[in-house]
Specification:
The structure is a homodimer of 158-residue chains.
Chain A lengths: L4 H8 L6 H12 L4 E2 H11 L5 H13 L3 E4 L10 E4 L6 E5 L5 E4 L2 H14 L2 E12 L1 H20 L1
Parallel strand pairs in A: 4-6
Antiparallel strand pairs in A: 1-3, 2-3, 4-5
Chain A binds a DNA duplex (25 and 25 nucleotides) through helix 2 and helix 4.
Chain lengths: 158, 158
DNA sequence: GTTAGTGCAAACCTTTTGCAGCTCT
DNA sequence: AGAGCTGCAAAAGGTTTGCACTAAC
């Protein structure tokens, strides 16, 4: 059984690798999606129907404290739940379409530049960063433009 | 009675200005702090003891939908509540000290640059942006350095 | 006079906690 | 063996909803 990214980090800290944690960590490491606690719980139940929702929360808390995952909320587009992703990836911003809910990731040097500007101007040492932008994706921009045009046409007729 | 920033915006949209809303809007406009629903409710109760918590939530929802306030969560440092601030101010990032909870605001051109980079690279039109950074403020950096030094000294003695 | 807004109570959803029993090392 | 972890049930915290009454326009 190959330990994946997060799992190795945990072993190094002497944290017990239980069957339940293995399942959850595999899912977090491998799933491409941004998972919230409930989605993670649903996926985990498929692999172990006995696994309890509480264990999901406790594992997520553990990973947060260990700095192994980032917590997002994607601008609360879908509700108040939090989303989690492995912190192994390079720093990136999340860009959410406020019409269709699509989430894109943005990697770019402006993020590092922002962090450095904040450190030098406020004297903080930055540990974690979360950048979430909301707007309209190209597809939804077209649809919205179309709808606006139709609305104008209807008003002109009336 | 002078209508303040947000209040004028609402009038223009034909939304009723009730006594309760006036109180809440005044507080949001004037309070320097970042208010969550409960703090806002506590402050509002001082001005009108009958004002109900639910009205606070409904007003905040209204303002969010109207794009008149930004919703923050300050990295959930204190809990899962949301914070609100009038959107009249220039775009800025929030920087939270993860040790003492102090919140600073950062205004700088990297924010606009980031927004533009995202728009041009992903083709999104950005409507709203939220940037929250966590780290240690200068004061807490000193304290932490001090604590680390003491810990090292203790270990050397043992 | 109408329609929107308020207060109250109760529901809701997500997350946390207490505790007894189980399991990883 | 023993500390750490899990499951279950129950609570907590923050927010939303249904409905009858009230107030703004």
């Amino acid at each position: 059984m190959a330990g994946t990214g997060i799992q190795n980090s945990l072993k190094e800290r002497g944290i017990r690798l239980t069957r339940q944690r293995r399942i959850l960590l595999d899912l977090l490491d491998r799933s491409g999606r941004h998972l919230d606690a409930d989605s993670l719980f649903q996926l985990a139940k498929e692999k172990d129907p006995k696994l309890n929702r509480v264990t999901v929360y406790r594992t997520l808390t553990l990973l947060k404290k260990g700095g192994l995952v980032d917590e997002l909320d994607l601008l609360h587009f879908k509700g108040d739940q939090h989303y989690y992703e492995s912190k192994l990836k390079q720093e990136h911003a999340h860009v959410i379409c406020l019409r269709c809910g699509k989430v894109e990731e943005f990697f770019g040097d402006s993020l590092q530049r922002l962090r450095k500007q904040v450190e030098s101007s406020l004297g903080f040492s930055i540990v974690t960063a979360r950048t979430e932008l909301g707007g309209h994706c190209p597809d939804c921009q077209s649809v919205l433009a179309q709808e606006a045009a139709e609305k104008n046409a209807a008003e002109a007729k009336a």
